[in-house]
Specification:
Helices cover about 60% and strands about 5% of the residues. By secondary structure, the protein is mainly alpha-helical.
């Protein structure tokens, strides 16, 4: 649609690439499933009511609220492109994107990156992430609280009306102390690695792990009933940025929070698969534990080879790096999305972008 008038800035913002994509249609299945991996995974597997819910939310926030905030210049959003996921700062009256690699090399440059500016789309998206998690927790308590309490007092043998539970009750269950023992050993090893590897003060594991455990049940219920998933990655980033002020500890905190969610949901999914396939819970537990240990050793070895050989810079490989925790560690979460942020205080109304250094709002492709 943006080809109607490629030189029209507003039309490109509403319909073009890095814009809002109004009227864009994609028929390539690989692109469709790849672009919605974090939420839908596959539109075929998602129930109709969940798709309608997502569609209504998408249209309201992306095609109504964001244009409304942007074109009315709320919080001076028009100083940046309408929707771009980068952090910007003011330098001599010109707004530039933060050089994350420079911040990683020299964290003392933080004084040059205040205040931090977000695009309208990125700001709305970040606030929606926090709002969605809060809504999910409240929804779980109100609508599933009684069922959760009832399930804690129910065993496989007490479900005579479920043929799967009746058949699985013949297998000896994996004792709970197996899981407790694995957790204790893993926690001790993690604490030792965090302390002696100078990755993060080990006691912050007592914050990262409960945070993920609290989110795990609501996210699991939502994923089981709607096939939709919620990613705690960004929430963990800003949570860590609020209590930590260095990049490496923030990386470590996010790693434990995010990976704990992924592997926990994967374990639950595998246990559910074994339940319907009538696989012994003890056999499944042993296989899961063995595969986890082997894959962890292999992945650690591969990562060490990549880091020590400097293959990303010398061999022309493309190695993905997320600089968001670096920015959060150097700048602080409160200056990006908290009470000290420009989005809240609206303290950047007087800043004007240099015409020679202004950003392209959207591209018509």
């Amino acid at each position: 649609m943006c080809m109607i008038d490629p030189n029209n800035i507003v039309l490109s913002q509403l319909t073009g690439y890095r814009g809002l994509g109004m009227g864009a249609l994609v028929f390539d299945w690989a692109t469709i499933t790849d672009s919605i991996t974090d939420s839908f995974s596959s539109p075929v597997l998602v129930p109709r009511f969940a798709q309608i819910n997502g569609l209504v939310g998408f249209v309201f926030f992306n095609w109504f609220l964001i244009p409304l905030l942007y074109y009315t210049n709320v919080s001076n959003f028009q100083r940046l492109p309408i929707s771009i996921t980068q952090y910007y700062y003011n330098k001599y009256g010109t707004i530039l994107d933060i050089p994350a690699e420079e911040v990683m090399r020299n964290s003392t440059t933080v004084k040059y990156y205040e205040p931090i500016f977000l695009s309208c789309g990125d700001a709305v998206g970040l606030y929606l992430v926090f709002g969605s998690l809060a809504a999910l927790l409240v929804h779980t308590i109100l609508y599933h609280g009684k069922d959760i309490l009832q399930q804690f007092h129910t065993s496989l043998k007490r479900r005579e009306n479920d043929i799967h539970c009746t058949l699985m009750a013949k297998y000896p269950e994996a004792p709970e102390w197996w899981y407790i023992l694995v957790f204790i050993v893993s926690f001790i090893i993690s604490a030792i690695v965090c302390h002696y590897g100078q990755l993060m003060p080990w006691y912050y594991l007592c914050v990262a792990i409960p945070f993920t455990i609290i989110c795990l049940l609501p996210i699991g219920i939502m994923h089981g009933t709607t096939a939709l998933s919620f990613n705690v990655y960004f929430v963990a980033q800003f949570f860590a940025g609020a209590i930590l002020n260095q990049a490496v500890p923030i990386f470590t905190f996010v790693l434990y929070s995010y990976q704990l969610q992924l592997v926990s949901l994967s374990l639950i999914s595998n246990l559910k698969f074994g339940h319907y396939m009538k696989i012994s819970p003890r056999s499944l537990f042993i296989v899961q534990l063995f595969v986890t240990v082997v894959s962890s050793l292999i992945q650690s070895g591969v990562n060490r080879v990549v880091v020590t050989s400097d293959i990303c810079s010398t061999q022309g490989w493309s190695c993905a790096v997320d600089y968001s925790p670096v920015i959060l560690g150097a700048v602080g979460a409160s200056k990006i999305i908290g009470p000290e942020s420009v989005t809240i205080t609206n303290s950047a109304q007087s800043i004007i972008m240099d015409s020679n250094d202004s950003k392209i709002d959207a591209v018509c492709i």
